[in-house]
Design a protein that fits this description.
The chain has about 500 residues and is mainly alpha-helical. The protein is built from 18 helices and six strands. The strands form two sheets. The chain has a three-stranded antiparallel sheet. A three-stranded antiparallel sheet has the order 4-6-5. Strand 5 and strand 6 form a beta hairpin. The longest helix has about 50 residues. The two termini are about 50 Å apart.
Length: about 500
């Protein structure tokens, strides 16, 4: 985007990052948000944790600058930073929690990243960045080359270069990086690694905006449902198949590969064992940066999965409401047909269906005002007869203990890495029938590491309290051992 005057004027008024730069308490806001989220690498914090942390931060500032420096309470500052005219923090309720949580907005994370870049560095490395640019150019040129002979010539040249390097190493001629070259490449790696970590919030934000726009379209849609679904899934496919979506998926596939994880761990261990890096060897956060990538990527994947489930339930609720009305109409038609089956009328027109038409009502059809009749209410409470109340119904209710079901799942996962709901019920038959089965499905829906397959199906059987055999067809439910490990933590 070109830096055009009116566009910049609009950004100054509306962009959260620019509003932060012009805020009176910008040093307080930027310093605290960097401490709470960036330095600690926290994707979200509860209201209690963040309020206590801000209280401590304000106490230190008041101790150094005076009691009147920041007169407001920590909760007041947090509420202000979440307002729409600030948009520096995002306030939300995670699934299964009634306490609000906070997270940085992508715009503010970009502003903090820019402020960090203003700090003085030991040197400005140009060689490593130039080599990176050259490597990228080579990859682009090679990646689109269609001439087979030219590609073969380039590969042979690379092989010849490797052969010469191998011969040089055999002769003891091994060129090594000096301290300056090593520090320069480390600095370039550090910047790229941290920028990559910052990009995850922007990816989450884009998916939330997609979910919001889809819900708005569903609410305002006036056409047929087929057209609505085509528009929704077309837009979702466009996001997934966009450059950003495919790049993130490629990154995630590479990072989740066991070979890639082992390679990254080994490379980081070797790099941080180089004595020439000096004080950089103590950077524990960068030493474990690949685990931070995995945590941030997993959070993004959970957010996308949660939004997909919520959207699916939203559509199902809309469809259920429409289906109830259609079912009621069909039932009334069937009932009328059954009543007329034995005594069919001689006329060909014996049933009618309401047709859409405009409801016309003339102004003179409206009734005149009538004085409402005042109803006399008897507020005296009379004593009822003291008959015995039958309380047996209260004690015959079916109650399913979800805590017991969770313990049953965890004990089974101690013996195997994963299991299906069908195998679990085979070892532990249903005591409460269908209610207990639905409780298992509810636990799987609430567990981010359980999986309900839309493709595979299972047939489950059990015996009810009256001794009758029951059978149910349902999607296959998987439970993973990762659930058990995290519960122990």
């Amino acid at each position: 985007m070109s830096l055009e005057y009116y566009a910049l004027l609009n950004m100054r008024k509306n962009h959260p990052a620019w509003r932060l730069m012009t805020a009176d308490n910008a040093p307080l806001i930027a310093g605290f948000l960097d401490l709470a989220f960036i330095q600690s690498n926290r994707r979200e914090q509860s209201e209690t944790e963040l309020t206590l942390l801000l209280d401590d931060y304000l106490f230190q500032l008041r101790d150094a600058s005076g009691e009147d420096a920041f007169p407001r309470e920590a909760g007041g500052y947090l509420d202000e930073w979440c307002r729409n005219d600030r948009a520096w923090l995002r306030k939300f309720y995670p699934q299964g929690s009634d306490e609000p949580h906070f997270d940085l907005t992508p715009a503010i994370e970009k502003a903090l990243q820019w402020l960090e870049s203003l700090t003085a560095t030991t040197f400005v490395g140009t060689e490593s960045r130039l080599m990176t640019c050259v490597d990228l150019l080579k990859q682009m040129v090679t990646g689109v080359e269609m001439d087979r002979d030219l590609r073969l010539a380039e590969l042979r040249e690379e092989r010849a270069s490797l052969d010469r390097e191998i011969e040089a190493v055999k002769e003891g001629n091994m060129p090594l990086l000096d301290d300056r070259e090593l520090r320069e490449r480390y600095h370039q790696f550090s910047l790229t690694a941290r920028e990559l970590l910052h990009d995850f919030r922007a990816v989450e934000h884009n998916f939330r905006e997609l979910d919001r726009s889809v819900r708005e379209r569903i609410t305002a849609w006036s056409g047929d449902k087929g057209g609505l679904l085509d528009a929704i899934f077309g837009e979702e496919d466009a996001i997934n198949n966009s450059d950003e979506g495919r790049s993130f998926q490629g990154f995630w596939d590479f990072l989740m590969s066991p070979e890639s994880q082992e390679e990254l761990t080994a490379l980081l261990e070797r790099v941080f064992s180089i004595k020439a890096l000096g004080e950089f060897q103590e950077d524990r956060r960068l030493r474990r940066i690949h685990f931070d990538w995995m945590a941030a990527g997993e959070q993004t994947q959970r957010t996308v999965a949660l939004l997909s489930r919520q959207l699916r339930r939203y559509l199902e609720n809309q469809n259920l409401h429409e289906n109830r009305r259609i079912t009621a109409l069909l039932n009334s038609i069937e009932q009328g047909a059954l009543e007329l089956r034995e005594d069919a009328p001689s006329s060909s027109s014996f049933m009618s269906v309401d047709h859409f038409k405009a409801a016309l009502r003339m102004p003179m059809e409206l009734p005149l005002f009538r004085i409402p009749i005042k109803q006399e209410l008897n507020s005296r409470v009379e004593e009822a007869e003291k008959d015995e109340m039958d309380t047996s119904v209260l004690f015959s209710q079916v109650v399913v203990d979800k805590g017991l079901l969770k313990e049953r799942i965890l004990r089974s996962l101690n013996e195997k890495d994963h299991l299906t709901l069908k195998s679990l019920i085979k070892d532990h038959p249903l005591d409460e029938g269908l209610a207990e089965l639905m409780a298992y499905v509810s636990l799987a829906e609430d567990d981010s590491h359980a999986y309900v397959s839309d493709e595979d199906r299972d047939s489950l059987e059990w015996t009810d309290r009256e001794g009758r055999r029951r059978k149910a067809q349902m999607p296959r439910v998987y439970f993973s051992s990762k659930t058990n490990k995290e519960k122990k933590r």
